[in-house]
């Protein structure tokens, strides 16, 4: 699994992409911790985001945790939170997510 992580980081770094996103399953907290321990930021938790096969023609809606990160100058070219027009409840959600992202960065 560490080889996969190394290859993924290398591809991301060499891709030239300014913005990357990934998601982790809610039943696999190891990959969530990997993202938190590297330079990924939490974007949100999406209940029922994907339909999963359960066998015997059964399906369920899985929940995923989404992460993002900027490469190069990507963040510089993105709109800033102070430019956004968010409803008060969404502003509070953003502030909490950013606080957790800052705390996660300090622990690295």
Task: Summarize this structure briefly.
The protein is an alpha+beta fold. Helix content is 39%, strand content 32%.
Structural summary, described in words:
The chain has three helices and three strands, in the order αβαββα. The chain is of the alpha+beta class and 108 residues long. The two termini are 20 Å apart. The protein has helices at residues 2-14, 29-37, 88-107, and strands at residues 19-25, 41-55, 58-70. The chain has one domain (2-107).
Q: How are the SSEs placed, and which strands pair?
A:
Layout: H1 2-14, E1 19-25, H2 29-37, E2 41-55, E3 58-70, H3 88-107
Antiparallel strand pairs: 1-3, 2-3
Q: Helix coverage percent of residues?
A: 25-40%
CA distance, first residue to last residue:
20 Å
Low-confidence stretches: none
The tally of strands reads 3
Strand line-up of the largest beta sheet = 1-3-2
- Summed up, the domain count is 1
- Strand percentage lies at 25-35%
Number of helices: 3
Mean pLDDT: 89
Major β-sheet profile: 3 strands, antiparallel
The radius of gyration over CA amounts to 16 Å
Give the SSE string: HEHEEH
Structural class category: alpha+beta
* Overall form: globular
Features:
single chain, 108 residues, alpha+beta, 3-stranded antiparallel β-sheet, 3 helices, globular
């Amino acid at each position: 699994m560490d080889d996969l992580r190394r290859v993924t980081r290398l591809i991301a770094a060499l891709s030239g992409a300014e913005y990357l996103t990934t998601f982790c399953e809610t039943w696999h907290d190891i990959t969530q911790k990997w993202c938190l321990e590297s330079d990924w930021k939490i974007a949100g938790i999406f209940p029922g985001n994907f339909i999963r096969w359960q066998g015997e023609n059964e399906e369920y809606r899985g929940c995923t945790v989404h992460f993002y990160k900027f490469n190069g100058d990507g963040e510089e070219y993105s709109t800033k939170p102070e430019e956004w027009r968010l409803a008060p409840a969404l502003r509070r959600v953003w502030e909490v997510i950013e606080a957790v992202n800052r705390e996660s960065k300090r622990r690295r």
